Amino acid sequence: MKQPAILHLEGITKQYEQANTLAVANVSLTLRQGDLLGLVGPSGCGKTTLLRIVAGFERPQSGMVELAGRPVAGPGYWVPPEQRDTGMVFQDYALFPHLNVLDNVAFGLKNRQGRNSRASVQETSKEAIALVGLAGLEKRYPHELSGGQQQRVALARALAPKPALILLDEPLSNLDVQVRLRLRQEVRAILKEIGTSAIFVTHDQEEALSISDQVGVMCSGHLEQLGTPEEIYSQPASRFVAEFVTQANFIPARRQGQFWETEVGSFEVLWSNSHTQSPIEVIPDAAELMLREENVILNPDDQAPIVIKDRHFLGREYRYCMQTPSGKKLHARTTLSTQLPVGKRVRLSVANPSVPIFPIREKLTSRL
Questions:
Q1: Burial bucket for residue 282 (CB in 10 Å: 0-12, 13-18, 19+)
Q2: What pTM does this model have?
Q3: Nearest C-alpha neighbor of 347 from the set 310, 296, 309, 313
Q4: Where are the alpha helices (DSSP H) in 163-316?
């Protein structure tokens, strides 16, 4: 059964004063109750601006915002942030240094709960603190907590009023790698446990894919693609999505009958921009072939034109950097059983013959 929409955006457009380009360009999307949406893209792509529009911190020039079926922004009407039933978690935590954990979490409740007693506010605050795993630390001050603990306090403060939607603006970017890896899964587990929808803004592709039910990829204000993490990774809708999310290799190719000829070898692939077959008469004579790093197989061959220039040990795998005759750099990820020395010549093949092809004219820089 399809869940009701908790958020609907229709044609959202925003341009800042004295800016030559749109910060957000005609973005439309729907988020279902209980789902987590990850917004990912490079710096300046508009993902934080879109989040701020949903929160009510920015006004769009055009478009409509609906929260839980209630219009909150659009032509002729505007609902301020404090009346939108959302919770915000900022990148820098935004905790009050002079308040302890309990009072930081309770701060937002005091105004919302109105006539409710102090005991009720404290009880709700303690429940939120326990939910994020900080029970027993209620009397500590922010400077007495680690970065991960401070971010948990910020999350507890956002969750305490039980908002319809949680908005997280790169909340883990200031944390150490190991803390970030652990906390992102904890955040997802907490939100799923209580059934609260959320939008999670990040520039980390792996983070977006791992924490989200839906991923939106943005570039220069445009929503390039919206789909499940699996769809985004395996069926990129544009060259930008393919390059930004998968970090794959792109090789110029020319069609010779049923084969694509490249400087690294021949590949039997079908023209596809979205993993759908096209009639042979519309297959172009030239395109760019996408080889995911994990899909590349290295075969030692002293007569091959490709040379291994470097090898990086990543714990559970190797990442090889290779050079083609034209000087182009290619990368491959292999298991530890594939151990080849620097300087070795290799021939490439692919583990999955379904190799995506994109038009040469669609360059990554077209919107940057």
A1: exposed
A2: 0.86
A3: 296
A4: 177-194, 205-211, 229-234, 239-246
Single-letter amino acid code for the residue at 297: I
- The span from the CA of 143 to the CA of 159, in Å, is 22
Structure tokens at 319: 């990442």
pLDDT digits (tens, 9 = 90+) for 57-112: 999 999 999 999 999 999 989 999 999 999 999 888 889 999 999 999 998 787 66
* Joined tokens for residue 256: 């010779």
The number of residues making up the chain comes to: 368
CB count in 10 Å sphere of residue 170: 20
pLDDT tens digits along 18-71: 889 999 999 999 999 999 999 999 999 999 999 999 999 999 999 999 999 999
* pLDDT band for position 357 (cuts 50, 70, 90): confident
163 CB contacts (<8 Å, ≥6 apart)?
Answer: 85, 86, 87, 196
Q: Is 272 helix (H, G, I), strand (E, B) or coil?
A: coil
Strands 345-350, 306-313: pairing kind: antiparallel
Which backbone phi and psi does 343 adopt, to 5 degrees? 95, -10
Spatial contact of 289 and 262, defined as CB atoms under 8 Å apart: yes
- Enter the tokens of residue 56: 């009510």
Q: CA-to-CA distance for 258 and 214, rounded, in angstroms?
A: 36
